[in-house]
């Protein structure tokens, strides 16, 4: 695939939102390559269920900003077929809970066709979806199932947590010849901040150290990143220097960045909004045991969601989710700065 | 891989003949195509019993007229999406017999480099998108291939085979709606062999008139005698013409029957033997051969010649598959993801 152009380079650092950054990335991709189109439920006239694609229909027309029926399996599968047919579809699924209706297509076709065909059928599709809780949307709109997708060979799984990544991960995802899943945490869309002018396309599969530190590594991604950064501020006030690692790529995992960080800090806390049993946090913890066993001065701590279908009531939902306070407590336990009687089971 | 004589290649050779001669030659090509599939699968049964082919293997013996007749109506630019019962579709599409046989043997020369097996035959060069073993799973792919053609203005047709069992899957209904809604150039070919594995049509569908139900989505739909190769081809040509002309997806219900069990593991307890025998009287190979004999188009030596040609092709395929190398274990993880883009993409 040809290198993606950025026809409208940002003049300088400027204020924007995560949502607008995603939209700009889509706009760029659609302008740069005629093969790119966006397809999903209410992406056109409605403007996207979370407003990401607002205005794109007017610029690119209904052929390339394509509203679909509520048929996740059919339109995700059609995206896969269109990719086989030479196009570069971006398929939007409203939430990760709904993506289960298309799981057959994602696993049995998108992730599998290249290998099952002996290398003949790469599937260059990008599938975007919302994930995560925190907006009182209840148990069928709020889960964090991206770890399930990260289990599957043949998929690349991304979780942009910053405005810069929202802006710059799409182009390399589209350039990748294989299926890429992009998870956008619903709590991030309204995040506003500066988009640095010099932040060009980023490499896929690379984690980022968002805050350097020396005492403990807070390893996280997506919607938990702001919480981890808040926790790191609080820890700094208490004399603990926390390094915050943003995974960005959930498959493949950037083992080197994770391992290097823990080799320096000797303590690790994995923060993952998914349930802890059989989770990505379990995978990272296992890898730290494999790679950093002799670096670790304490057991790996995990801060995950309570093992409950996400409740509606605000107090219950907040209690179910990782919060800066629970991250701080876990970090303190890890570095031996607090009694360990509060450790989760 | 050896060059395979496809029915289409033979048909083009017969163009200079007079019309009745052409029709006779074409019938011979259809017969040849069906014999290839029949004998290939019969050989597969032998090889399976010798444990040289393993895994699940589903035979289309009895349904050859559908594969051969429909494929006749397609051009090389058209796409085919198929199911796990796809040996016939692959062979009729022109995937070389030795590439299919080598795949059954799990060899590196197989059409999926030994990674697919009987249920997952692929040939991108022939636009054969294979080999989908999730019932209904291939339908959305077909819609997408057709969407790509529509969006790029290519006058191609995507032909999607599936069974009556797929009518119970949401993916059929989602895709039928999507394809009709968007007017996509898809030819849906339902091979109604009356059984979803071991469950009879009347036991899995509230309304068993499948063409009627497809029509409810706004598609041109009709039912065809799937044991009559000429009728199949004629229906497919008309449907393909409509699809290519831009009148949206078409649906053909091919009324057919599989003479063998669902798979090699199936003891066939759910069907009445008399029912199987009744359908065998309408064996598509015999039906066409009988017609040709009546017309004086099939002297014994012609049939013997076709059988010899088919046997030689299959013998060669088996021999080549036996001698072919295995994929080295070091290459186990190859093709899980693509090599870097600049290497992989022109």
TrEMBL record, chain A:
Domain Transketolase-like pyrimidine-binding, first and last residues per copy: 16-191
Cofactor field? thiamine diphosphate
Q: Does the keyword Oxidoreductase apply?
A: yes
Q: Which Gene3D superfamilies match?
A: 3.40.50.920, 3.40.50.970
The yes or no answer to whether the keyword Transmembrane helix is present is no
Q: Which CDD domains match?
A: TPP_PYR_E1-PDHc-beta_like (cd07036)
Question: What keywords are annotated for this sequence in UniProt?
Answer: Oxidoreductase, Thiamine pyrophosphate
Identify the domain of life: Bacteria
SMART domains, sorted: Transket_pyr
Q: Which InterPro entries match?
A: THDP-binding, Transketo_C/PFOR_II, Transketolase-like_Pyr-bd, Transketolase_C
Q: Which PANTHER family match?
A: PYRUVATE DEHYDROGENASE E1 COMPONENT BETA SUBUNIT, PYRUVATE DEHYDROGENASE E1 COMPONENT SUBUNIT BETA
Protein name per UniProt: Alpha-ketoacid dehydrogenase subunit beta
- Taxonomic source organism: Streptomyces actuosus
Automatic annotation (TrEMBL), chain B:
Q: What class of enzyme is it?
A: oxidoreductase
Query: Compositional bias of type Low complexity: which residue ranges?
Result: 1-13
Give the residue ranges for region: Disordered. 1-27, 320-346
Residue stretches making up the Dehydrogenase E1 component domain:
34-329
Annotated CDD domains: TPP_E1_PDC_ADC_BCADC
Q: Which domain of life is it from?
A: Bacteria
Entry keyword set: Oxidoreductase, Pyruvate, Thiamine pyrophosphate
The protein's annotated catalytic reaction(s) are:
N(6)-[(R)-lipoyl]-L-lysyl-[protein] + pyruvate + H(+) = N(6)-[(R)-S(8)-acetyldihydrolipoyl]-L-lysyl-[protein] + CO2
Q: What is its EC number?
A: 1.2.4.1
User: What SUPFAM superfamilies does this protein's entry cite?
Assistant: Thiamin diphosphate-binding fold (THDP-binding) (SSF52518)
* Bias type Basic and acidic residues, positions: 18-27
Q: Which cofactor does it need?
A: thiamine diphosphate
Which PANTHER family has this protein been placed in? PYRUVATE DEHYDROGENASE E1 COMPONENT SUBUNIT ALPHA (PTHR11516:SF60), PYRUVATE DEHYDROGENASE E1 COMPONENT, ALPHA SUBUNIT BACTERIAL AND ORGANELLAR (PTHR11516)
Q: How does it assemble?
A: Heterodimer of an alpha and a beta chain.
- The name of this protein is Pyruvate dehydrogenase E1 component subunit alpha
């Amino acid at each position: 695939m040809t290198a993606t152009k950025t026809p409208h380079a940002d003049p300088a650092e400027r204020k924007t939102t995560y949502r607008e950054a995603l939209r700009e990335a889509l706009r760029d991709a659609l302008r740069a390559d005629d093969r790119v189109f966006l397809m999903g439920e209410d992406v056109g006239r409605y403007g996207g269920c979370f407003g990401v694609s607002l205005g794109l229909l007017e610029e690119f027309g209904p052929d390339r900003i394509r509203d679909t029926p509520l048929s996740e399996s059919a339109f995700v599968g059609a995206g896969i077929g269109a990719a086989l047919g030479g196009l570069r579809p971006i398929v939007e699924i409203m939430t990760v809970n709904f993506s289960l209706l298309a799981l057959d297509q994602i696993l049995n076709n998108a992730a599998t066709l290249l290998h099952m065909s002996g290398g003949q059928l790469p599937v260059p599709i990008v599938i975007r979806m919302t994930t995560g809780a925190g907006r009182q949307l209840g148990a069928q709109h709020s889960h964090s199932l991206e770890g399930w997708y990260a289990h599957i060979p043949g998929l690349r799984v991304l979780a942009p947590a910053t405005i810069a990544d929202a802006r710059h991960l799409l182009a390399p995802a589209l350039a990748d010849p294989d299926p890429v899943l992009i998870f956008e945490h619903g709590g991030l869309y309204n995040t506003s901040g500066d988009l640095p002018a010099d932040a060009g396309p980023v490499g896929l599969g690379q984690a980022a150290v968002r805050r350097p530190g020396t005492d403990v590594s807070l390893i996280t991604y997506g919607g938990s990143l702001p919480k981890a950064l808040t926790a790191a501020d609080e820890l700094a006030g208490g004399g603990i220097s926390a390094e915050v690692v943003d995974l960005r790529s959930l498959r493949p995992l950037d083992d080197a960045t994770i391992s290097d960080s823990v080799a320096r800090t000797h303590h690790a806390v994995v923060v993952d909004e998914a349930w802890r049993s059989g989770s990505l946090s379990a995978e990272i913890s296992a890898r730290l045991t494999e790679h950093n066993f002799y670096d670790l001065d304490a057991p790996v701590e995990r801060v995950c969601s309570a093992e409950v279908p996400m409740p509606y009531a605000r107090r219950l939902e907040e209690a179910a989710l990782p919060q800066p306070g629970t991250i701080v407590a876990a970090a303190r336990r890890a570095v031996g700065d607090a009694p360990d009687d509060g450790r989760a089971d | 891989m050896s060059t395979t004589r496809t029915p289409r290649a033979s048909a083009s050779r017969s163009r200079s003949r007079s019309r009745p001669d052409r029709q006779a030659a074409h019938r011979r090509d259809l017969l040849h195509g069906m014999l290839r599939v029949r004998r290939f699968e019969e050989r597969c049964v032998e090889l399976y019993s010798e444990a040289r082919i393993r895994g699940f293997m589903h035979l289309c013996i009895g349904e050859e007229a559908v594969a051969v007749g429909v494929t006749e109506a397609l051009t090389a630019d058209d796409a085919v999406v198929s199911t796990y019962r796809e040996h016939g579709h692959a062979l009729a599409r022109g995937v070389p017999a030795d590439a299919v046989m080598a795949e059954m043997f799990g060899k590196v020369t197989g059409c999926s480099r030994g990674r697919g097996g009987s249920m997952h035959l692929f040939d991108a060069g022939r636009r054969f998108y294979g080999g989908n073993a999730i019932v209904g799973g291939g339908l959305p792919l077909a819609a997408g291939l057709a969407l790509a053609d529509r969006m790029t203005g290519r006058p191609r047709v995507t032909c999607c085979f599936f069974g009556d069992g797929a009518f119970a899957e949401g993916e059929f209904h989602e895709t039928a709606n999507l394809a009709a809604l968007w007017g996509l150039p898809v030819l849906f070919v339902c091979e109604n062999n009356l059984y979803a594995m071991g469950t009879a049509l009347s036991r899995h569908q509230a309304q068993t008139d499948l063409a009627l139900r497809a029509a409810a989505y706004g598609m041109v739909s009709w039912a065809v005698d799937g044991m009559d190769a000429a009728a199949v081809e004629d229906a497919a040509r008309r449907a393909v013409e409509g699809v290519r002309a831009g009148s949206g997806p078409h649906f053909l219900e091919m009324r057919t029957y599989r003479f063998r069990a669902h798979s090699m593991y199936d003891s066939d307890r759910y069907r009445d033997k008399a029912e199987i025998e009744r359908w065998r009287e309408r064996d598509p190979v015999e039906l066409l051969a009988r017609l040709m004999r009546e017309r004086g188009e099939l002297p014994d030596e012609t049939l013997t010649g076709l059988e010899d040609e088919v046997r030689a092709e299959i013998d060669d395929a088996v021999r080549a598959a036996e001698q072919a190398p295995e994929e080295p274990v070091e290459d186990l993880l190859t093709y899980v993801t693509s090599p870097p883009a600049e290497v992989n993409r022109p």
